[in-house]
Structure formats: C-alpha cells, structure tokens
Write a structure and sequence with these properties.
Elements (H helix, E strand, L loop, with lengths): L7 H12 L2 E4 H13 L5 H14 E4 L12 H12 L4 E3 L3 H4 L3 E2 L2 E4 L1 H11 L1
Parallel strand pairs: 1-2, 3-5
Antiparallel strand pairs: 4-5
Helix pairs in contact: 2-3
C-alpha cells in the first residue's frame, strides 16, 4: 500500500526507513510483484523499481520451500517464517489470520495503523 497511495501506509514506510531496521521475505516481494501486475495492472518497470527500493533498504530473507506450520493459511507461513528467521520483533499486517496469532517467539503481529499510533507517541 505504501507504493500505491500517499496515505498512512507511505508515512509508515518512510518512518521505518529512518527509525528501524527492516526485514522482508523474498516471498513477500514475489507476492507484491504478482499482485501489482494481476490486480492493479501496474507497469513492470514501476513494480521492479519499488522492489529494488525495498531490496536496498531492507534485509531480504530467502524463502524456504516448506516453512513450518504456524498459521491457518500456508501462504502466511512464508511471511511469518521469514520474519522469525530475520529476527524481526514486529510484523506489520492487516491480515486477520496473522493478527490473530498475537506474538510468536518474540515476534509481535500488529496492524500498521496501530504501529503508527504507537510510533507517533514516541516522536
């Protein structure tokens, strides 16, 4: 959403760049690319540029073929597994299945808007 709108998602992303270390799974980048093409019809060069930006700003965690079973959605397991392997402490998501997990091994699942409210309270 940070690349598709100039709203809160982009503000959160810009804040993350300056205030936190980011970790992203290769799976997430692949899904982002696919969704941008399939659902939003964005040109390939725009999507590739956004992915390159994220690759330059975040530590990219390689995907594993069969991540451990963590959630009810096998696709979410790729996301959560990468965050855990990347030693992230927070996973930003609006996915209700991911959010329902709460905290796993020190990884807190939180909505981006809730994270943004917490962070703005620190500024």
């Amino acid at each position: 959403a940070a690349f598709l709108t100039r709203g809160q998602a982009s503000q959160v992303f810009e804040h993350l760049i300056g205030a936190h270390s980011m970790v992203v799974g290769e799976y997430v980048l692949e899904e982002f690319t696919r969704h941008c093409h399939d659902y939003f019809g964005l040109p390939g060069w725009d999507v590739a540029e956004a992915v390159q930006l994220v690759r330059g700003l975040a530590r990219v965690i390689p995907d594993v073929p069969d991540p451990p079973w963590i959630s009810q959605d096998p696709d979410d397991d790729h996301v959560i597994s990468a965050a855990l392997r990347g030693e992230a402490t927070v996973l930003l998501s609006a996915d209700p299945d991911i959010l329902s997990l709460g905290t796993i091994d020190g990884l807190r699942m939180i909505r981006p808007d809730d994270f943004w409210r917490l962070e703005r309270g620190k500024l």
